[in-house]
Amino acid sequence: MTAITLKGVKKRYNKSLVVYGVDVEIEAGEFIVILGPSGCGKSTLLRMIAGLEEITDGEILIGDRVVNQLEPRERGCAMVFQNYALYPHMTVGKNIGYSLKVARVPKPERDARVMAVAKAVGLEALLDRRPGELSGGQRQRVAMARAMVREPKVFLFDEPFSNLDAKLRVAMRSEVRKLHRQLGVTSVFVTHDQTEAMTLADRLIIMNAGRVEQVGRPIEVYNNP
Ligand code: ADP
Ligand code: ADP
What we know:
Blueprint: E1 2-13, E2 16-27, E3 31-35, H1 42-50, E4 57-62, E5 65-66, E6 77-81, H2 92-102, H3 107-120, H4 136-148, E7 154-158, H5 166-183, E8 186-191, H6 194-200, E9 203-208, E10 211-216, H7 218-223
Parallel strand pairs: 3-8, 3-9, 6-7, 7-8
Antiparallel strand pairs: 1-2, 1-4, 4-5, 9-10
Helix pairs in contact: 2-3, 2-4, 3-4
The chain binds adenosine-5'-diphosphate (ADP) (2 copies).
């Protein structure tokens, strides 16, 4: 089953194209990494899938629905950012549960779901803390829990581990792979780090200067640079 279909997806800022027309099909359950140098359009492509950026031309399908006109929250995707994007005045628990509160999920169900995802990422003892009292790794776990709590089918990661030290980055990669498998979701992960890409990806999308240069399994891409 296809989870995400990109058909001739383009993005123009002012007068110049930054994404030239991307055609890719992503299978349900795949872990896809978009790899390429800074400024090549990776983040823009991801943000178009999320609905945070309008597309200039083409079509994006999630499942069998064309989502071009849908709001981000209607797309069944959750995004995890490099800078965590947490609410500083809210506790960890409130940060994680906020989207459920907005969606008027009743308090008992909200509590149970917040606790379940907090446990899954090892945050259950920190629910009453504020983001400012947490380490970088813990903040990134909050960001992941907040994405998970809405039970999305698709996870979108925008260089989520770039601010973490090398050791933690390696640990978080295996956590993300584990959660991906446990939850049975489709993941699209943007990075400029080749090692990170090779470690995480079922398939790589190699981008350069706004174009997709290669799509394939790490071993295939590695053997045909
Ligand atoms: P990457 O994620 O690969 O680093 P981006 O998708 O962030 O690349 O950016 C691709 C190109 O689009 C860059 O040249 C960047 O300067 C440009 N760009 C990104 N956002 C905007 C914007 N809001 N307005 C104008 N240009 C932008
Ligand atoms: P609200 O009234 O917005 O739900 P709370 O501070 O009571 O505010 O809770 C916010 C979220 O944090 C809730 O969804 C709750 O599940 C979670 N939470 C906070 N502390 C705990 C805790 N000790 N055990 C379980 N869940 C907690």
